[in-house]
């Protein structure tokens, strides 16, 4: 249910986590199917469709350790069916009397779909936990660097000052919104599937809906409004939520890659002893973890397209795309879990170079706060005239490699309205971060109750 790099004993921990791999392991999926059959037998026994003793026996035997996996593998070659070998092997384990009631009234897709949903349910718990951890870590950084002014960049160029805390707060809020999406989608996504051959529950007689409800409740899943054999929008929603979460993770990783550039050098991954950036250039301090994350994210987001394509189904059952879900769902979950784990490690161990942040902030010699001067001058000349004056000054300062203050002091259009002391104050980037601090506070207050307690600093 995965791919080479996920299964590889060499590379699997570079892209995923052991915890999430276990969620989609053969043993877990086998247990999911057994749990479905046990829940089905118990639900049917409660309405008198299956003998109670048979249901008890099925439940008692429903342990993956009882199943001979080699027999099941060989059964696939003989039957070319995704579930019959398991049914036959489980029947052998339970014995002919109780085994005769296994899978009673169900169809293969009922058990397979519900088995996948049970693994998604476990994956949900991991994603919610890890997303909360990242919100907490981002909020901690937002609080700590709430007032640290840095260069804000648009189109790859210095724009106006922001604070580093503001940048982390944006990330925290984005994670928070995705956490909300995950929580809100649970009832739509974590639904059981029990409907019979064409979804009508005819094989369960007059108690079909009751058995369906009991079946879902026993597995801790929501009861669907109607059969979803060919309605795959819930999987598409789940894949979309994962792709969005992956997009946030990838965006942050890519930002760290850029901020670690030699020419910028403001934030970098841990440079702990033993880390190697290049096999040939010993000086390199490459952002290897963030590069791994962005590679994962590209695969995850491509996989999401499969979920949307899977919504195109025919009639009351269509297996031409159904089996693809057994591939892309585990792969998305495993690679996203790996990406979340890697980013959490980056957050914990990253190095913040405050000296470089300040150096870069002042590197354009006042140009980064030209807007502030323009707006002040605009009070006297009008905004557009002031823009033209400041544009002339900025281009001259840039071309002559001079401080903007010195250039503006030579322009009577400026000095007739603004004196030197005011210009010096206007050109201080530390005093032009707008509402960054208040926005950090707003994000902190929005999400602090969703995560574990975090430290507070003055100003919050």
What does this structure look like?
The protein is mainly alpha-helical and 460 residues long. Helices cover 63% and strands 4% of the residues. The radius of gyration is 30 Å and the shape is elongated. The C terminus is likely disordered.
How many DSSP-defined strands? 4
Q: What is the molecular shape? A: elongated
| Strand residue percentage | under 5%
Largest sheet entry: 2 strands, antiparallel
Number of helices: 22
Instruction: Report strand order across the widest sheet.
Output: 1-2
Rg: 30 Å
Order of helices and strands: HHHHHHHHHEEHHHEHHHEHHHHHHH
- Catalogue the unreliable spans: 455-460
How far is the N terminus from the C terminus? 47 Å
Which bin fits the share of residues in helices? 55-70%
Please summarize what this structure is:
This protein is mainly alpha-helical.
Question: What characteristics describe this protein?
Answer:
460 residues, mainly alpha, two-stranded antiparallel ribbon, 4% strand, disordered C terminus
Summarize the helices and strands and which ones pair or pack:
Layout: H1 4-7, H2 12-15, H3 18-23, H4 26-46, H5 52-61, H6 69-79, H7 84-94, H8 96-99, H9 108-144, E1 149-154, E2 157-163, H10 164-189, H11 208-218, H12 233-259, E3 267-268, H13 288-309, H14 319-322, H15 325-349, E4 351-352, H16 354-361, H17 370-381, H18 383-400, H19 404-408, H20 412-415, H21 420-426, H22 436-447
Antiparallel strand pairs: 1-2, 3-4
């Amino acid at each position: 249910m995965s791919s080479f790099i996920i299964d590889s004993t060499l590379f699997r921990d570079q892209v995923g986590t052991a915890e999430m791999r276990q969620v989609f392991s053969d043993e877990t999926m086998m247990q999911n199917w057994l749990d479905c059959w046990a829940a089905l037998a118990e639900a049917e026994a409660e309405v008198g469709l299956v003998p109670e003793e048979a249901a008890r026996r099925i439940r008692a035997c429903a342990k993956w350790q009882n199943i001979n996996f080699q027999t099941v593998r060989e059964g696939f070659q003989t039957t070319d069916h995704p579930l019959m070998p398991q049914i036959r092997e489980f029947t052998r384990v339970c014995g002919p009397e109780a085994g005769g009631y296994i899978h009673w009234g169900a169809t293969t897709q009922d058990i397979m779909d519900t088995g996948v949903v049970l693994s998604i349910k476990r994956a949900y718990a991991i994603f919610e936990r890890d997303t909360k951890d990242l919100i907490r870590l981002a909020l901690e950084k937002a609080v700590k660097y709430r007032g640290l002014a840095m260069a804000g960049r648009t189109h790859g160029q210095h724009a106006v000052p922001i604070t580093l805390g503001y940048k982390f707060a944006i990330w925290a809020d984005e994670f928070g919104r995705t956490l909300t999406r995950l929580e809100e989608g649970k009832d739509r996504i974590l639904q059981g599937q029990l409907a019979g051959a064409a979804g009508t529950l005819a094989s369960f007689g007059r108690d079909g809906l009751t058995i369906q409800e009991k079946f879902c409740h026993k597995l801790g899943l929501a009861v669907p409004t109607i059969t979803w054999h060919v309605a795959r929008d819930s999987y598409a929603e789940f894949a979309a939520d994962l792709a969005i979460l992956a997009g946030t993770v990838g965006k942050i990783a890519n930002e760290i890659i850029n901020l670690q550039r030699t020419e910028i050098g403001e934030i970098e991954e841990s440079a702990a002893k033993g880390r190697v950036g290049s096999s040939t250039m010993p000086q390199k301090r490459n952002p290897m973890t963030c590069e791994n994350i962005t590679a994962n994210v590209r695969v995850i987001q491509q996989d999401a397209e499969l979920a949307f394509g899977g919504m195109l189904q025919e009639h009351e059952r269509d297996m031409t795309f159904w089996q693809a879900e057994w591939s892309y769902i585990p792969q998305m979950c495993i690679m996203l879990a790996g990406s979340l784990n890697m980013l959490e490690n980056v957050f914990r161990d990253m190095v913040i170079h405050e000296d470089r942040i300040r150096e870069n902030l002042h590197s354009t010699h006042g140009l980064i706060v030209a807007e502030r001067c323009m707006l002040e001058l605009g009070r006297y000349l009008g905004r557009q005239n002031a823009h033209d004056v400041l544009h002339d000054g900025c281009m001259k300062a840039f071309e002559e490699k001079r401080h903007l203050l010195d250039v503006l002091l030579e322009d009577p259009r400026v000095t007739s309205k603004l004196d030197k002391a005011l210009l010096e104050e206007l050109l201080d980037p530390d005093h032009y971060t707008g509402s960054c601090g208040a926005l950090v506070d707003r994000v902190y207050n929005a999400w602090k109750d969703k995560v574990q307690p975090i430290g507070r600093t003055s100003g919050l």
